[in-house]
Amino acid sequence: MKRKYKVFTAFIILSLLAGGTAGCSKNKEEKKMVHYKEEQLTLPEGVGIIYDMMETKEGSLSILTDTESETGRIFELDRKTNEWKQVNESFEGLSDSAVFDAKFIDENESYVSVLYHALSAGSEEEAQALAPKYFMIGKDGTGKEIQLDLSSGDKYAEDNLFSVAVKRDGEMIGIDNAQIIYSFTNKGELNYENKEVRDLDAEIVDMIAVKNIVYTVLDSGKVYCMDADSGAAADGDEGVIKYLQYDEGEYEAYADPDADVIYKLSGGKLYSYDIGSGKQKEELDLKYFDLKNGIRYQILSVKAGELYISYTLSTGQVKLNKYVYDKKGFEIKKQALKIYSLTENYELEVLADAFNVKHPDSPVEIVYGYTSEDGKTQADAVKLLNTELLAGNGPDILIMDGLTAGTYYEEGLLKDITDILDMDKIRKNIFENMLAPYSDGNVQYALPLGFQIYGIVGSKNMVDAFEDTNAFLDVAEKENTGFAICDLNLSESANIVYIQNISRCFSEEGDLDREKLSELYTNLNRMYKLSGNSLGEEQGSKLFEFPELSAMDTEVQWIYYDQLPFIMAPYFNQDSFFASKYLVKQEGYEQGYVHNNDSIVYKDKLIMGVSKQSAKDEEAKEFLEFALNDGQETFSQSLLALPVQKKALKKALVNNEKQEPYKISEFGFGDDPKMIAINGIGLNDKDYDELEKELNKAVHFQYGDARLRDTIMGEASNYCLEKKTLAEAVGDAAEKVALYNKE
To answer: Nearest CA to 264 among 230, 293, 301?
Structure first.
């Protein structure tokens, strides 16, 4: 996040933990002389976000964090035994509250700001009545609420939360969400406020204090300087200002107000700046350390040559490493396993981060074909990939999503995975019918890690008619059933109708049957005319504009589910099953799936192949085995797809008795829709056995290629929005698909 102090609730923060880089590295082997030894510290069980770190007077490392059950917990690391001990008691005022900020004030007292009891709000009215509260909590479990006057900020209470950036004796300096700088005593008394930064039309990235000057780093590249005692604008050290300037990307600055060194993490490197000499030095190049995939960094310097850095992976896992300077230094030589994905891929990043945790000495580099920012097209990316593979310079593992695995195998660009993995062992643990589309006799040239199935949750009438699109629309027309309360739901409903009917629109030769395509477009138009839009936008203004969603639970979260007669699910993942189970059990709904000749239709995901030119069979084996086993069992929920490994699937879907079966919280402000957060109800063993029987004979969705779907649905949109006649839309779609087939 560029604006470091922008306030988010704890349950929203984790949804933002996605990142990554694109581009191919030309150097297959990288060498670097490093001077820091890296040590991963094992954190106490259940630790979530690390809000702050400090060194105690006795020289112990202390962290302010939360656990699975409590917020504001303090743990100290005994340097002799290397063991953690909890040193404070729980404070009742933090129960069920969403934490915005927490900071050590000193060894005995900590500051915490929360949205009070947000996690137990049971209605929209309760949610709207919530207000932020500020506490000072002690090690002994006692606490007191302090009142902070933020009346100069925005008019909405949720925008006026205060985050501490600089701590001095008995004083907290920081900003609210309106970017007004305040100084408060630790009793909540206002010392001063400064509104000048708010008026600079730039966002605050970070704040540090050095020698009584507070330096506020802005995303405009400027640094605002302020006297820490009075809050008035002041002249800072020019060298410090130049050093702290923000460029782009992840940024973190750290300085003890009385120290002579400032640390800055920027551009994937950690730098130090000696205030006395004015010299800047590169300390760490993150790509050679486990830090490289992190976000939300925190830095603590306890003495010269000794650093602690905490960070978060895209999985949400929090890490804490220790770095000790070695003057002699040592050369490291790492040859990364390159994994290629045509487009940015959050699921792949989750797997790579998880693999990196378990195999820190086996580096993985993710390479993207094109991104939304680099100006390339899909065709450009595919052409470049093919050129590199033919020249023997391509990646080692290919994510075949968006690529045609069969064609790459026929062109001799993919290896036989049976030469790398023990496929007999693998076939016992995963759905063998999902391997079949990527097998040619005894050769297995690709394998999927996950899959999606499609369906509906709704009234009995709608579900009973679901298999026959005409019957389904007849019921909807008879009952005057709207297909959307927002355009997003309409788009997903259209996606299901496409999945149900597209296979019959193609001949055996792969050409479009214009008569069948006309029927599909006519049904989509019937559905469009039934659609409604409760959000007040022009009806149909965004028809089919949205790509496939990540999960049905996104639908459940952002629409008034109790106003819907049914929910069309783009596909089911773990959360989707829990949410749909809740709706079936608690709301009296029913559930159905898309079938083809009595078999469930599935679309696979994270399809992996090993490129023929790769010389890293052992590394590829290590990564693929991890992805098929530990990666799926541990991170199946994060992968936004169902795992092909049966044990992992059962573990994900069958209810865990230790978990709360379901929970609903409602949040809504003004005209925004309610957000329904459903943990859901898991399947029981009998439910799972019935599902597995169906999945064992599930059939592959043949026309799921995103480019093909976009072409056909784009022309459907033109027809429904009356930009083209039915004949024109069908004709144009047929011509585009014919050109696509020639390519």
So the answer is: 301
The CA angle 11-16-21, to the nearest 5 degrees, is 160
Distance of CA 223 to the CA centre of its chain: 31
The 10s digit of each residue's pLDDT in 396-413 is 999 998 888 988 999 999
Give the highest mean pLDDT range of 393-407, 476-490, 559-573: 393-407
E strands present in 631-712:
642-643, 664-667, 675-678, 699-700
Q: Yes or no: say if 346 and 450 are a contact pair by the CB < 8 Å rule.
A: no
Share the mean pLDDT of the chain.
79
Helices 617-628 and 346-358 meet at what angle, rounded to 10? 110
Considering only CA atoms, which of 391, 397, 337 is closest in space to residue 364? 337
Cα separation of 376 and 313, whole Å? 28
Residue (of 511, 575, 528) closest to 720 by Cα position: 528
Label residues 433-448 b or e (16+ Cβ within 10 Å = b): bbbebbbeeeebbbbb
Query: Residue 557 corresponds to which tokens in the numbers above?
Result: 């979260």
Q: Is 276 helix (H, G, I), strand (E, B) or coil?
A: coil
Q: Is the pLDDT at 222 greater than 60, yes or no?
A: yes
Show the tokens assigned to 543.
């028809």
Residues in Cβ contact with 142 at an 8 Å cutoff, skipping those fewer than 6 apart: 91
